[in-house]
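hiii, so i know i said id send this last week but things got crazy w the move. better late than never?? heres the sequnce for the chain we talked about at the cafe, plus the structure i predicted for it. fair warning i was half asleep when i ran it
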Amino acid sequence: MYRKIYISLLLASCFALVLATLYGCANPGSGPDGGPYDETPPKIVKMYPELGATQRTDKKVSILFNELIKVENISEKVIVSPPQIEMPEIKATGRKISVSLIDSLKPETTYTIDFSDAIVDNNEGNPFGNFTYYFSTGTQIDTMEVAGHVLNAEDLEPQKGVLVGLHKNLEDSAFVKLPFDRVARTDGNGRFCIKGVAPGNYRIYALKDMDGDFRYAPGELLAFSRDTIVPRAIADVRRDTLWRDTVHIDTVKLTPITRYAPDDVVLLSFTEKRNSRMLLKTQRDAPEWFRVYFTAPSADVPVIKGLNFDEKDAFLEQRNATGDTLTYWLRPGSLLEQDTLQMAYTYETTDDSTGLAISRTDTLELVPRLTFAKRAKQKAEELEKWEKQREKRHKRGDFSNEQPPKEYLTLGKGLAGTLSPLGNVHFSFSEPPARIDTAAFHLQLKRDSVFEDAPFRLERDSAALLDYTLYAEWRPGQEYELTIDSAAVTGLYGLENRKTTQSIHIPSEDSYGALFLIIPDVDTTAVVELLSGDKVVRRERVNARHGADFFYLNTDTYYVRLFVDANGNGRWDEGCYAEGRQAEEVFYCPMHFDVKANWDIEQTWRARELPRTQQKPKELIKQKDAGKATPKSRNSERAAAKK
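okay and structure toks below
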């Protein structure tokens, strides 16, 4: 009997042990109940050809690991150099990575396959680390490296996934006609490292290669440098400090290393302004206007020849701020009731073959989405509906609303109740004003509970037909009242504004702060931009005293950048590769400014003191390369959570 009990207990123990073993195997490092996460990265067992092999003609590479692995984001992370026109076949199967090169191998050339951090183990995602496989078709391995960063020229944002290439051919045409000789790709910090470089002289470029030919084509993001790149190896020493405790140094270990230069190249990328001008599309939503869109601006004034109407004095032309969109307002008359406008439209365009500006004439046929007749019918139906509702009100004895609804000219942007002393009142009318009676505008300043007239002027904004600004001397701490009488403004098609009254409060001076910058290493060509986050809230050109003064600032956290306005047009401009012209220089102040009410900040900022890679505040960098959580970090987080 005891023997049976003993055997039963023994079998139960064995069964429980088997279950525990199976559960542990099925859930390696699965969480708090499964023990710690596996932190051991995969290891290479064998490579064929061997790492650093020479005089090889093999187009296939095999790398064997000690555990199951995978290669993440192959198209984004793995890059072969020299660049391959035919995309290599890269596969991860079980414990092996296989690479098949399709292009013919070049003689006397070092080939590198840069896996970056794409190799991880299959279970926990432990990264193998940044790994580059290399071999040579010649008798030696080229070991030089060229490294640096690619930043967006306009805002110094790190550029991820951009190709950076070297050309032995130093002619400008090489970037357009020839694929790169050596190539790398930027990581999330905009950092690149071109490996396997032979001694010599090179030109360096960056490229967002949209068509996969490793050559620049118009429309692709690019960066270039006029400097000649001369790779070199420098004997250096790495200092490793061993501490006896938290205060005392035990020993400093010196380890000889080889450092490759240049390793601090900074390329500033931009997309060239599209100068090719073509008619993109036309639009006519209403009978009163039509719009013509172009791919690029031009100073040329298009000519309209009516085919079914008389074009003389028929339109008012309005250009947008960038000059690539033209709106034509039809003058009042019978033309508004004509459903279809047929015209010969002559404009400046770009010849596809020569790239030169030429004149072209297209026949346009424009029909409004809502015709004049349909809109008149809609208004008649709305009036009929209103009259029926009025009859019903009369039967109830309600005679309060006896006037049919009237359409008014709108003021668009409207009026603000609170205004900065530096601000002004902006209007955007719903149609071009035909008449403005400034005597019907009344601005009054409140003094001792009594309003008195205050001077102002009303002006149209540049070439904009619809936008006007009311300028006045806005005194801090004062109250104003702006009244616009009814029918003060009559639109091109007869609409009038309704009476509007708006109180305007100007906060006192002590409710604002100020920022005064001294920037000694720039001149009056520089324009300083004050940022709230990444939004520009104010611009000031540097004065003759190398200063930029920002008064009447709301309480906020501000950042500062500037651009060197080389052509004096008041805006940042991209570069042009054909002209060898870089984008206009941009600099960021690395600190932020906490502006408080009734508080002035004075700061000296040397714009060129820090490298571009260290200027942009981390809070403004959108491209974050935080990396994914690793088993090591997850174990640390778990340990910290238990404390």
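btw The mean pLDDT is 89. thought thatd interest u
miss u guys!!
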